[in-house]
Amino acid sequence: MENLTAPLAEEVPRAIEALDFDRTRRAYWEQDECIFIERFLPAEVVQHHLLPEVEKLRAEVHRHYIPKHKKGGSVSYYTLMEKAPVFVELYRSPAFIDFISRLVGHPVMPCPDDDPL
Comparing C-alpha atoms, which of 82, 93, 100 is closest to residue 4? Predict the structure, then answer.
């Protein structure tokens, strides 16, 4: 797999570096291993490099609904690879993998290409 597109390759490590890591990690654990980082990437990067890719996937979302519980949707790994590989590239970014490993306190590895589930 190729490296991230130039703007993301520069912005992901910069975004991680800009975080107060100790605070982020503390929040992750305090929120039962869940974290939402507002404005992680600059708005221009999201607007010009990620949102157009999301639009390519809109018709590919598999919707599901569990009455009185939740509703959601998913896009297959193979569809991501075909129509919006930037998201797989982000997922496989060495900087992102290192960040997640440090956040959870254990080494993590992305799923192999032949095991998309």
Answer: 93
